[in-house]
Amino acid sequence: MLDYRLLEALGAVIETGGFARAANKLHLTQSAISQRIRQLEFLLGQPVLLRSTPPVATPMGRRLNNHLQQVRQLEMDIEQVAQNEPLQIRLTVNADSMATWLAPALASCELSARMAFELVVEDQEVGLDRMRNGEVMACICSEARAVNGGAVRALGVLRYRALASPEFVARYQTRERPEHLVEAPCLVFNRDDQLQHRFLASQGLPAPRRQHHCPSSEGFVKMALAGMGYGMLPELQVEPEYRAGTLVEVWPEASLDVPLYWHYWQTESSAMKALRQAVTTHAHQVLVQPD
């Protein structure tokens, strides 16, 4: 039988990205963390971490961390009865969900007052990697296929439009000459963000050649309003600006729908089930629902 203190050390290194930070998280010395990892590897007869910067879990390390996440799910129900400590909930979410619909969804869970959320922000197209590596208890992303040991529920569609300031559209004449979008400055959230590329591809155009990287949903909107570039923006986030005409479409009636899914472990605690149901109910009310 595995010693769960060893698994907790492994999980802390993976979650925090380093031995020193894992030691701080578990209130241990860095030497104690290293010793527990070595002991785990000795018991298994194989490495669980690649000693890179940051450390990377091996396939066995990912399997063990997945197992640890599912055990934590089951422990939640016991902790609810045994103590009054807040429930630590670690979720992977995309920034645009945080900036638009997610906060009321989390708050709508009747148990949210007893939860302590740690939200890990990742692009909706890559966020499931955190779940696959066993780093989080649930994940909101655009991938429909569940990870091993997990399940998935559809939330709805976040609709994006390619928007910019009226002055930007006039300057680059994007409505008359959509091919100008390839050379015009384009706003991109980060290097994982492919929405703008997908939009251009849907119009038969190559990838944008000039990009501004802005890893902030609010900053993204401000840069578009200032005429710095065009970008794919969620309708939910910019409805007032769109209605007022301070943000306009660079190409008429062109939108991009991104489906969102809630991923969770099959060994789901009652608290996580309540959270999933609350988030799903709220999402179905505010997100576009496919026919």
From TrEMBL:
PROSITE patterns, alphabetically?
A: HTH_LYSR
Give the range the annotation lists for the signal sequence. Answer: none
An MF annotation (GO) of this entry: DNA-binding transcription factor activity
Q: Which Gene3D superfamilies match?
A: 3.40.190.290, Winged helix-like DNA-binding domain superfamily/Winged helix DNA-binding domain
Q: Which UniProt keywords apply?
A: DNA-binding, Transcription, Transcription regulation
Where do the HTH lysR-type domain residues begin and end?
2-58
Q: Which family does it belong to?
A: Belongs to the LysR transcriptional regulatory family.
Q: What is this protein called?
A: LysR family transcriptional regulator ArgP
